[in-house]
Amino acid sequence: MVSLQYSYGLKISYHGFQEAFLVALGAVLVIVPYGLLTGEFAGFLMVQAVLFGFGPLMFGVYSNTNDVEGDRAVGRPTVAALVSERGNAVFIGVLSAAEFLIGALASATGTAPWWFVPLMLPATALRTRQYLTGFVRGDIMAARRTGFTVHRLSVALMTAADILLGWGATR
């Protein structure tokens, strides 16, 4: 029901901060079922939940980049509509770097296994390609499509991490 309110009904995306909303929605989709099934919470769960939320976030920011004129016309306050083209490119670059840094910091602090950041490097490389496609080659919609692949790959890699952790716990 909440997702139906994003652009329709309550029009959550028309009130600002939809980029944060997208990450939070994705994170909740991971945390709530896990918590209901296990009754537990862990730092690595939060890391994975936020990284899962980056998938919808990154689809959204590339879509907003493509839709900037329409969003400005209807007063929809996306980052792309509120800042310059260069500012938006910097914003998306910072988000892309932040996604990597979340995993790197988690590995460095022991919140995630040390090998988590190297495991996620294929997704990081593809995210970099997405940025270059969108902002160097200028093909925002191809970059948006790449975002779906990045998200699927990230989910597969995080699932592999969880399987490896479970296998290690049984040894």
Describe the structure.
With 171 residues, the protein is mainly alpha-helical. Helices cover 77% and strands 0% of the residues. It contains 8 helices and no strands. Helix 2 runs antiparallel to helix 5, helix 5 (85-109) packs antiparallel against helix 7 (121-136) and helix 7 (121-136) packs antiparallel against helix 8. The termini are far apart. The mean pLDDT is 91.
- Please provide the ordered H/E string of secondary-structure elements: HHHHHHHH
Sheet/helix structural class: mainly alpha
- Rounded to an integer in angstroms, the radius of gyration calculated over CA atoms is 17 Å
What's the mean pLDDT score?
A: 91
List its salient traits.
single chain, 171 residues, mainly alpha, 8 helices, 77% helix
Would you summarize the structure shown here?
77% of the residues lie in helices and 0% in strands. It is an all-alpha fold and 171 residues long.
Task: Map the helices and strands.
Layout: H1 18-38, H2 43-66, H3 68-74, H4 79-82, H5 85-109, H6 116-119, H7 121-136, H8 140-169
Helix pairs in contact: 1-2, 2-5, 2-8, 5-7, 7-8
